[in-house]
Amino acid sequence: MDLTARTADQLGEALRRARKARGWTQSDISARTNLRVATISSLENGGAGTKLATVMAIMAVLKLEFRLVTRGSSVDIEDIF
Amino acid sequence: MDLTARTADQLGEALRRARKARGWTQSDISARTNLRVATISSLENGGAGTKLATVMAIMAVLKLEFRLVTRGSSVDIEDIF
DNA sequence: GCTCCTTTTGCGGTGTAGCGCAAATCGGAG
DNA sequence: CTCCGATTTGCGCTACACCGCAAAAGGAGC
Q1: How many domains does chain B have?
Q2: Is A61 contained in some domain?
């Protein structure tokens, strides 16, 4: 399960996979975030215009966080120590 | 240099650090993205309303990518099993 | 085929990001 | 303290996310 993203498209797809990995529907996320199902759908399909707040709200209920890594390096040096 | 973020605030701060680590000014980013300096400033200061496209554009010039990890664990659970 | 759940798409309305442009404030170097 | 580049803030404007509500389209199972 690769949850790495360089584009809004990839981020949307990663969030969709993380959601499904938890066995949740868009409706489940909607209930926990007060976001419309349509908004979640839009983001998962690569909505680059989506607000950062929307992304963070969804990540919060999925218990996810971002790690910014340099493109190309699979692991941050700091992660090892 | 911890580039992990759970909130828009932390993401903004992480982007600022990544930018400075490259020795760039907001103006440098602006020139490479067609975003206003003011927009970049707003994002770095935690603008949750910022559009995802804005974040991705900045990350692109900084050669960064997202990695979605489960909150609290330094390694993604799925990576182990 | 049909049914049920999930996801996507659409419309009118409201709020706000990002724009150009500008001014104000901050911060380090001398 | 004085410069001067970097960052932040403000105004009027346009564009669009997100809302509620609804309907249409997908997809799995019977």
Answers
A1: 1
A2: yes
**Domain containing residue A28: CATH number:** 1.10.260.40
B31: CB within 7 A of chain C nucleic strand: no
A75 domain-assigned: no
Structural domain range at position B29: 8-65
Residue B20 lies in a domain: yes
Question: Chain A contacts of B63, Cβ < 8 Å?
Answer: 70-72
For residue range A61-74, what is the model confidence (pLDDT) as tens digits? Answer: 999 999 999 876 65
Cα separation, A17 vs A11, in Å, equals 10
Q: Is the CB of B39 under 7 A from strand C?
A: yes
Model confidence at A75, pLDDT cuts 50, 70, 90, reads: low
Say if CB B49 and CB A51 are below 8 A apart. yes
Between chains, do B3 and A68 touch, taking CB under 8 Å as contact?
yes
- Give, in order, the Cα–Cα distances in Å from B10 to each of A31, B2, B16: 25, 10, 10
Residue B8 is nearest to which of A15, A56, A65, comparing CB atoms? A56
Query: Mean pLDDT score of chain B, rounded to an integer?
Result: 87
What are the beta bridge partners of residue B22? none
Q: Is residue B76 part of a domain?
A: no
Across the interface, which of B18, B66, B76 has its CB nearest the CB of A5? B66
